[in-house]
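[recover] target loaded
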């Protein structure tokens, strides 16, 4: 998939993070654990106000406490990416808190269900839940928060994908999960085209096989590197000629990010 610049030079257009006192707000779905939490902590360290999306009350308390102890700000936001009415309520609450703007949305929430491991064990409910959460969820969340993203005068959407979206990795297992991530990457490209006039860049990130609840403790890739890639991608909107419609991978870091790791 190839992306294109989301917009050209636009003198006078507001840029997220520009100006000495500009506050940047980022919403992260599934921020209570794993990659979502790691990205939330890193973005808070970089000065973002993190709106930590979660489905269950109190699950973001450790994140909020950790961020506060480091001098940052994180605010728990109850939401379910499969519930349009709940997403609308969350958007209204966030608009009240942020003055009606949102500078970045990270669609991180997703599921990886054991019933999907083999076709013979796949249940209709597991198939529905996987596709609804992993594909419809990011699109519905984007729609709910689109007015706030538009109001920012330049914003980023980051969809968390997987290398399992690649056809060459198919092995007959996890049919719905692989299909959901392939669909999410196509949705990323389509959203990038639809939202280009609004100065909203839309990209996907493939975080690798990382040691989270989903990936397991023996996963070989680095959680911190994946979080850094997400944070970098969330910050793209302030750049002129920012990439949009791209899929960035931890196994082929963008040059700017790879240089920082050296």
């Amino acid at each position: 998939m190839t992306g294109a610049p989301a917009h050209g030079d636009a003198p006078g257009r507001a840029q997220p993070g520009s100006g000495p006192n500009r506050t940047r707000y980022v919403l992260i779905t599934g921020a209570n654990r794993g990659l979502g939490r790691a990205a939330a902590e890193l973005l808070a360290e970089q000065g973002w106000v993190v709106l930590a999306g979660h489905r269950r009350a109190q699950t973001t308390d450790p994140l909020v406490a950790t961020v506060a102890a480091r001098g940052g700000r994180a605010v728990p936001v109850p939401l379910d990416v499969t519930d349009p009415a709940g997403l609308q309520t969350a958007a209204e609450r966030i608009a009240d808190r942020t003055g009606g703007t949102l500078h970045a949305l990270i669609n991180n929430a997703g599921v990886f269900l054991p019933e999907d491991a083999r076709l013979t064990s796949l249940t209709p409910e597991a198939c529905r839940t996987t596709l609804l959460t992993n594909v419809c969820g990011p699109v519905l969340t984007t729609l709910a928060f689109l007015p706030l993203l538009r109001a920012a005068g330049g914003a980023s959407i980051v969809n968390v994908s997987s290398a399992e979206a690649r056809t060459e990795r198919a092995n007959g297992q996890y049919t719905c999960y692989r299909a959901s991530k392939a669909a999410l990457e196509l949705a990323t490209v389509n959203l990038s085209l639809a939202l280009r006039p609004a100065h909203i860049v839309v990209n996907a990130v493939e975080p690798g096989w990382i040691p989270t609840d989903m990936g397991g403790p023996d996963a070989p890739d680095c959680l911190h590197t994946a979080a850094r890639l997400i944070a970098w991608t969330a910050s793209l909107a302030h750049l002129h000629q920012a990439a949009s419609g791209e899929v960035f991978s931890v196994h082929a870091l963008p040059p700017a990010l790879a240089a920082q790791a050296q």
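[recover] notes: DSSP finds seven helices and nine strands in the chain.
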